[in-house]
Each structure stands twice: as structure tokens, then as C-alpha cells.
Amino acid sequence: MKLKHALVLIAALTALLIGMIGCGGGGGSVGGDSGALFITDGLDGHDHVWVTMKKAVLTGASGNVTVFDEPSGKTFDLKSLRDGSGERYAFIGTIPNGTYTGITFTLDKTLTLFPAGSQNGLTRVFAGNNGSTVNLVLSFTSTQSVNRDQNLALDFDLASWTDDGVTVSGAPFLKEGQGHGLGDMERHEHNSRWGTVTDLRGNAPDQTFNLTRRGLTVAVVTNRDTDFRNSEPARPFQLENGKIVKVTGRYSVELGAIVADSIRIRSRSEEEEEPEVEGPVSNINAGAGTFTITIEEADHFQPLFATVDIITDEHTVFTSRTGLVVSPAEFFAGLVEGTELQAVGEYDPATNTITAIRVSYEDEEGGGNGGGGNTSGGNTTGGNNTGGNTTGGNNTGGNTTGGNNTGGNTTGG
Questions:
Q1: Are 379 and 199 in contact (CB under 8 A)?
Q2: pLDDT on residue 325
Q3: Residue where a domain stops, chosen among 214, 232, 260
Q4: Which of 230, 260, 290 finishes a domain?
Q5: Which residues sit opposite 195 in a β-bridge?
Q6: Residue 271 covered by a domain
Q7: Which sign, positive or negative, has the C-alpha torsion 19, 20, 24, 25?
Q8: What pTM, to 2 d.p., does this model score?
Q9: Looking at residue 349, which CATH number applies to its domain?
Q10: Contact in structure between 224 and 18 (CB atoms under 8 Å)
Q11: What does the alpha-carbon distance between residue 310 and residue 331 come to, in Å, rounded to a whole number?
């Protein structure tokens, strides 16, 4: 998998360079002058720490700036943001060029902890919550400058969190990150997000565009390794300005953009915020149309167990490795234990099941040049919009500082 993603980045850089030469341009950024916000994690003893983020607002010299805004929430496993090699990063959003003195993260009041070795999650609430959400506030130890070459990484400091069996407190919840390895694309987690295509330019499959949602924008790069798909397989894929798409990929600090592994156009009846899981399968029962996924990634719900049972029915769409819609019999005939799948559908916490509207292979193959027709658009930028004030919160952090890093890495103080 690492070789595959390294090749994706090389292809993206090559396509970008060719495009710049052809246009007489210079520089290496698709995302303009903006920086980016990332979260990482400190060490602790849990296997998983699932939280739901709703908003992130930076305190700037010119006022507050919203960099993330998902009212229904986006799920993160904070524990996945650290491994034996150090920090891993989740991209949150682009940040306008400027100076900032602090940040407020608004999370759902509920979090789910998985102690080491446990298959069952423990539901807890954050200290200081208002009954539905909690604001985690960090005042920076010194003013942070953010620009194309200076990003911002913040550490959800799990080692400083305490659990009394009901409530989780932090002393602090957050601290400033060091930004080690931020320029290494392999240290970034996969990121999936919906948005509207704007400022599309280039010829498929080598294209760039802005992904815009709720006034916030991130640049996206596609290349021959990008898997282009339509949620309605009978309809041809055509990437166009105004299309609502789901982009999955990793953020490249060098490009200032998400390098897309896959792009899927939303169907006319599809919801953007349906629960979804990814991971290896087990307990395959082709006759009943069921299987179990060991959860590696989840969104739009907090897992209560290490696994979730998937139920398929006559409404489920089955997608092959090459993106073709197949019959249930064909899908299950090729399914073996350990295969990585993604399932999207309705989650029932009482039975720990997802009734799937769509199942597909996570390691999809054969996308690449299946992209749409040649479409050109305007220049791609990565600027954000400002947002309103977020108040509340109960804890402040800001203990750790870090030195300067090269390659577009974040400084922490």
C-alpha cells in the first residue's frame, strides 16, 4: 500500500509539473498561499478513541476563522494518529494566510474509548459539555504564522486525559504539535469528504479542482491512478464544475492539496452523511447476505464494538474491484476472509449492524483512466472563508513548543 501511494504522489507531481510548464507557470503548490490544519495524537494505552468533530475555529488577528464545519459531525479515531514511528496526521482544513493566537474545537459531548485488547467500547462524556457538545480551547504559547510554507499541527494529548468512569477530563486536552514528518505523505491518514467541484482545469485524468463545502475550500489533484466512479453506474462518469462528489485521498503538504485515490459522483438520491465503515471481513455468509467488518475506519457514527455486522438486501448495490455493479452472487463468490471492504448504510446501535445500501472493495482497482471527458475550468485555489465566533469550553492547553521544520512542516511555538 505504501508503494501504491508513493506512486500516486509521484504521478501527481509529474502531472502538475507538466501542467505548469504548459501554462508557463511556476511554483509547486496547487492550493495557493493557504496553509493547512492537521491533528495528531500523543501516546496512551487505548486501542481506539473515537470522537466526533463538528467545528474548528481559529482566533486570528483579524477575527475568528472557521476552518472546519460539519454540523452532523465527522468521526475520528484519535488513537490512529500515532504509531511506533511517531505522529500521524489527519487533515482538517485549509487556513488563510495570517497570524493566529488560539483555536476552539467543537466536538460531540460523547466519545468512545477502547481499552487495550478490548473488543467493547466504553461510552464517556467530555467534562465541561453543554449537554450536546463541548468546546476544547487551546491558547497558543506564542502567535502562530500560517502560510504556504508554514502549516499548523495540533496534538490531542491523550496521555493527559483522565477517565473517572463517566467523564473524561484533560489537563490539557490539547497542545501544540511538533509537526515531525508532516511533509511525508505516508504519515497522513486517508481523508474522505464531500463537496462541490469548482475551478476545474486540466484534461482527465490529470486535473485539479477546488472542493467546496459550506464556504470552505480545499484543492484536489487527480491523476492516472485516481479511481473515478459514478454512484449510478448506468450513468457515464463526467467530472464537471457544479458536481457533488466524494473525494478520498491523502493530503500532500508539497502540493497543498488532497491527492485523490478515488472520486465518486453522488447519486441523485444519496445522502452525504450516512454511516460508513472500512476494514477486513470475516464471518461471510453468502446465503444470508451478511458478513462482519473489523473496523479500521468509520465515519458518521462512533463504533461501540471493534467489529460491526453488515446486512445486505435487495436494495444493496454491490461493486466489484473494477467498479462494475455485480449481482450479490457474483460479489460473494469472490469474497474471501480478510478482504478489505467498505460498507455504507443505516447503523443500528441496538444490534450493532449496518444495513448496507452500498458495499465495495476498499482496495479498488482499475479506476485510473476511467475518468470523464476533458473538462477545463479556472485556476485552483485553496482559500477559506471566515466564520463566526465559537464560545464556551473549559480547558486550555499549550504546554509544548517545537522548533522550525523544513519541507512545509509545522512549527509548534
A1: yes
A2: 87
A3: 260
A4: 260
A5: 245
A6: no
A7: positive
A8: 0.81
A9: 2.40.50.140
A10: no
A11: 14
